[in-house]
Amino acid sequence: MSLVEEFDKTGNWFFKYRSYLPVVLYPLATLVIYLEARQDFAFSGIKWSIFCLLISLIGLVIRILVIGFMPKGTSGRNTSKQVAEVLNTKGIYSVVRHPLYLGNFLMWFGIILFVNNFWFTAVCILLFWLYYERIMFAEEQFLKRKFGDQYLEWSLHTPPFFPKFSGWENADLEFSFKNVLKREYNGLFAIGISFAYLDVLRNYVEYSKFHISPFWLYVLIITFIVFIALRTLKKTTKMLHVKGR
Predict the structure, then answer these.
(1) Alpha-carbon span 219 to 217, nearest angstrom
(2) Is residue 238, in this structure, part of any structural domain at all?
(3) What is residue 215's predicted lDDT score, i.e. its pLDDT?
(4) What is the arithmetic mean of pLDDT over 139-150?
(5) What do you get for the CA distance between the two ends of the chain, in Å?
(6) What pLDDT, on a 0 to 100 scale, did the predictor assign at position 228?
(7) Inter-CA distances, 199 with 36, 37, 80, 114, 161, Å
(8) How far apart are CA 183 and CA 90, in angstroms?
(9) What is the pLDDT of residue 25?
(10) Confidence (pLDDT) at 105
(11) Which residue among 32, 125, 146, 207 is buried most deeply as judged by most CB within 10 Å?
């Protein structure tokens, strides 16, 4: 099997199970905090908490820009196979080819930084890069086969991961807040509960008692309320139904 076929095969396998990588980070972060209580970075306290949270929220905003303008018939959250009825080249896709993965990375990067361990941060960056590089390769092979010259022309002037903002083109579709509210409440709650878990764990290691800092308690409560409210609306009403998407 050639390297191209090998990358394509493993990339599609990783694509199928791409939502499970962050789960691995929890036991790793737990071990790092439990075994290595010292903090490597010079920052700490409420300022460091806010900084890490903002990075994660920036990642969520990038995902929102994708979901809000997402046309029907694109991959979204499907795991069985690659799907693309149209090639997205406008909006956030006009400045970066893989904005969802950029958003995912930043969401988890804020949480990774909060662990406050240099080697844990370095290893996680490497894991994300190796993991998503294969997925991006497989996706691009699929898009190249399906859209041919249209894909090649777009890929020539649009970077894969680090945005080039000068190339921005407005999206053809109107932004759909309903689509965002229907799809992204899980991500917001994941941010809240992840930070809260790490805060409780660190406080237990340092002070030998279960305690959550007031800041993260408020964040957890807010994200939980939003989660319950939007999930209830989605499951019991048609308020978040988006026609044609």
Answers:
(1) 5
(2) no
(3) 95
(4) 85
(5) 39
(6) 95
(7) 15, 12, 36, 9, 30
(8) 20
(9) 84
(10) 93
(11) 32
Q: Which amino acid is at 21?
A: L
Q: How many domains does the chain have?
A: 1
Q: Rounding to the nearest 10 degrees, give the CA dihedral for residues 76, 78, 80, 82.
A: -10
**Does position 6 have pLDDT exceeding 80, yes or no?**
no
- Tell the residue number behind the tokens 């406008």, with chain if given: 90
Q: Using only C-alpha atoms, what is the Rg of the chain?
A: 19
Nearest to 110 by CA among 61, 59, 40: 59
In a domain, 142, yes or no: yes
Residue 226 lies in a domain: no
In a domain, 20, yes or no: yes
| Tens of pLDDT, residues 11-59 | 566 666 666 777 788 888 998 888 876 666 656 688 899 999 999 999 9
For the domain that residue 50 is a member of, what is the CATH number?
A: 1.20.120.1630
Q: Output the DSSP codes for 120-183.
A: HHHHHHHHHHHHHHHHHHHHHHHHHHHHTHHHHHHHHHS-SSS--GGG-B--SSPP-HHHHHHH
User: Would you say 16 and 86 are in contact if contact means Cβ atoms under 8 Å apart?
Assistant: no
Alpha-carbon distance of 19 to 62, in angstroms, equals 17
- Has residue 218 got a pLDDT over 90? yes
Domain span holding position 58: 3-176
Q: How far apart are CA 239 and CA 115, in angstroms?
A: 38
Q: Does an H or E element contain 21, and which? A: helix 21-35
